[in-house]
Amino acid sequence: MKITHSGYKTGAATLLAAMLALALTGCAKHTAPSQNDPVNKEVDDLFANLGDPKTPAPGKEKLHYMTQVQAEIQRHLKDAATYSGQRCTLRITLAPDGLPIGVRTEGGDPALCRAAMKAVTDARLPKPPTPEIHNAFQIITLEFRPQ
């Protein structure tokens, strides 16, 4: 079998041998990094928990908590379909136990905002799993846009 490329005709065996020689030559001069290298140790420490299923990624934990909060509020938003096409932005301040201690309208349709504020106050929001998660979500801005 012959391979034609850019006008040159080369046998497949010759091409394969040349590629193998180049690959081996490139590997011959490569040295493995030392395991005692401080830079490698720092990188290893950064990625140490990635494979540990018991340690959730910080972003994943935050996303999970925010999803729980949104689902609980949506569950209490009555007749959402009647507000289709409207929007409302609320600023919610959470206590460390997840209790909303402040809800303020930032703008939007007044009727939807009243319904959204009632949904927030009626909801039993979950307690943040860690103080770091509470700090990240101590003040939440949510935009309601029923479809």
Automatic annotation (TrEMBL):
Signal sequence annotation: 1-23
Record Gene3D superfamilies: 3.30.1150.10
PROSITE patterns, sorted: PROKAR_LIPOPROTEIN
Top-level taxon: Bacteria
Keyword Lipid metabolism: no
Keyword vocabulary terms for this entry: Signal
Gene Ontology CC, one term: membrane
UniProt cross-references to Pfam families, sorted A to Z: TolA (PF06519)
GO biological process, one term: bacteriocin transport
Signal in keyword set: yes
Molecular functions per Gene Ontology: toxin transmembrane transporter activity
InterPro entries assigned: Tol-Pal_TolA (IPR014161)
Name the UniProt record assigns to this protein: Cell envelope integrity inner membrane protein TolA
Organism: Serratia marcescens
